[in-house]
Write a structure and sequence with these properties.
262 residues; alpha/beta; 6-stranded mixed β-sheet; 6 strands; Rossmann fold; 9 helices
């Protein structure tokens, strides 16, 4: 696989694709099935670490044949939960994620919660602000995708099962998609424990972890496997990238197969 490096810009526009979207598998989408082209990523350092997961999602799309154009924009605040992101957008505060949702014509808003960071140790806060954000996204005419993160030792009041349960609840309530990144990391570690998903602080992603997050989000957005795409993130070996692409696709398929019936 050949490495692809994206320019470090707030909004990344990658190679142009034609009017009808053509998948890597050769499938053609009709106008009614038109896929997202403009994405806003709301989150904290888990989104902007290692150069930005949004840039890697765009790079994966650009690696399709023919290339897919994505415009990706981050709206990130270090250490912020969804509650904090919402509060920063209130009238007495500085401009924040809500302003970014309302101000631009995005197709999808990727909402990255960080449940362990809720200092109240209460999943209900994640659910409350996930609902509020989802309402804003829908009012803006966009689609919500929840970027599920992972548990970590510094704030160990909740485990992966608790994070999964919270995302199943918000998924069922809102009808939004979930990119099950935390589940993908757990699956990858079960198969290849030597391939670290988190970095030296045991909290933020390693390069492999960010690449897995991007591949999982890509697979969630487009219902398509990233396997075979020739974008490989910096500091990720080609063989590791192939493994990560497979794990991302398998995890998304398994997650969607297990969606509870309404």
């Amino acid at each position: 696989m050949q490495k692809f490096r994206m320019p470090l810009i707030a909004a990344v526009v990658v190679a142009l694709v034609g009017g009808l979207g053509v998948a890597a598998t050769g499938q053609v989408q009709s106008d009614e099935e038109q896929e997202p082209g403009s994405l806003l990523f709301v989150g904290n350092s888990f989104t902007f670490f290692n150069g930005g997961v949004e840039k890697q999602v765009a790079a994966l799309a650009a690696a399709e044949s023919p290339a897919r154009e994505l415009v990706v924009t981050p709206s990130t605040v270090p250490g912020a939960t969804l509650k904090r992101q919402y509060q920063l957008s209130e009238p007495e505060s500085s401009s924040g994620a809500l302003d970014d949702i309302r101000a631009a014509d995005h197709d999808v808003v990727v909402l990255q919660g960080d449940i362990p960071e809720n200092y109240e140790h209460d999943v209900a806060l994640f659910l409350e602000y996930a609902r509020l954000f989802d309402q804003e996204v829908k009012e803006a005419g966009a689609e919500t995708v929840f970027f599920m993160t992972w548990p970590y030792a510094r704030l160990d009041w909740i485990d992966l099962d608790g994070i999964v349960d919270a995302h199943r609840l918000i998924e069922a309530e809102t009808g939004a998609k979930v990119a099950p990144v935390g589940v993908a990391m757990d699956k990858a570690l079960a198969e290849r424990p030597e391939l670290a998903m988190l970095g030296s602080d045991a909290e933020h992603e390693s390069p492999a972890g960010t690449y897995l997050a991007a591949a999982t989000i890509y697979a969630t957005l487009f219902a398509r496997s990233p396997e075979g795409l020739d974008f490989v993130a910096d500091n990720v070996a080609p063989d590791d990238a192939a493994f990560i692409q497979r794990v991302a696709w398998e995890t998304v398929q398994e997650w969607n197969e297990d969606v509870p019936a309404n």
